[in-house]
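Per reviewer request, we include the raw input and output of the structure prediction for the construct analysed in the revised manuscript.
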Amino acid sequence: MHVLDKFKLSRRHLLRGLIGGSAVAIGLPPLEAMMGRSRTAAAGGDLPKRFISFFFGNGVQLRNFEPSNTGPDWTPSVQLQPFADAGVKDFVTVCTGMRNRTESQPITHHEGITVMSGYDYVPSNAGGFASDWGGPTIDQVIAGIIADQTPTPVRSMQVGVTKFDSPVDNGTAAKAASARGEPGAVTALFPQQNPRAVWQSLFGEFEAPKDDRELRLSVLDAAKADIDALNQRLGQQDKQRMEAHLQSISELETKISALAPICEFPTEPLDENVEDNGEENLFEINRVMSELIAYAFTCDITRVASNLFCSVASESVFGDVAVSSSTHHGHSHSDDEGYNQNIQFIMSCIAQLMVTLRDTQDAMGESLLDSTLIFASSELSQGWSHSWQRQPIIIGGHGRNHLRYPGVHYQAVPQQNPNDDQTADGNTTDVLLTLARAFDPSIPSIGAGQMMSTTPLTNIMA
């Protein structure tokens, strides 16, 4: 008799244990014991799709960003070369020359943030240059769709990389890349830049050692009895998946522990790293955050995540980049080689996220990148001009063949010259609606006012 006839397992099943008197829980990857014979979810729904939004401040250099040709055989530009170098170019769709139809009052760096939501911002009295989200961001629209269909234990997760934002740019739209609710009742969801804190949010509260001599168990040790009991009931293929899954957790825990001092338990209740500006290990933090997202997706803890890599007008110094002695915002105004290299570095971090998803398999033996859509953009097209037309739009993955594969370069209208960033057409919100329809084909629109879209961008759809 098939193992599924003997044992059925809820996809929300958690392995539990105790560390220092505190409860911890480990999610499971999708297993055959959770599936029907047709290999669809036991509840009868479609195989899961996932979504990630990735925001980076200060725009790009259009002359070094936009590919020179369109279609599926697009040639990577200088700033998009990291995707080819990482071997994930076929999973990348680039949209250029699109119009952000916001009617928000220009206050530099803020009006263009509407590319993430399709709603004009709401003026804020938070001080300095300030704005609040006027409607839900695309990640939360999709999180709401998933919550109505097949809710996960965690609705969404919000992570960040650098903690150095702009001291003069304020309000929720400047400090958070994710917001849920409806216009007039929007709640910002702020990112967590501490990998240890994100780890704790997935596993439960850990109790720190009372002194250096106290041995702290790993979560796998804590849940060993539950793991052993479950393994006795699983089929051979599920046992192999469990073994690989638990091994990846062990490796991830080791990597997080190695990120000292960022990932040590803080002496104060505020969970944030302590490195000075320019000394953050941004590439490694991004790597661990990517692996945490992949873990959460594999275990179906959540299907939606956002990464605020660097904020609106971020004053972070990218210490990983040799020439970045100035802040990223400062380089963007100088329009110099440091700006170019910073953007290449950001693109390499998006590529790193894609590689992590590509190299992580779900229960079907498919990479997470096949079932995921990533939307990455910025509040500007390029920093020195503060334009919010021709904003960079990068889409990763294809969402189980919702988008074309290999990915394409779609250009709404060509540039008039390398520095003319005002020429634009179409509606950036069309891209958001296209992505949302991967999760709900019947969703009628995204956004409001002139930014509202009722027409998905069919040029990039499969």
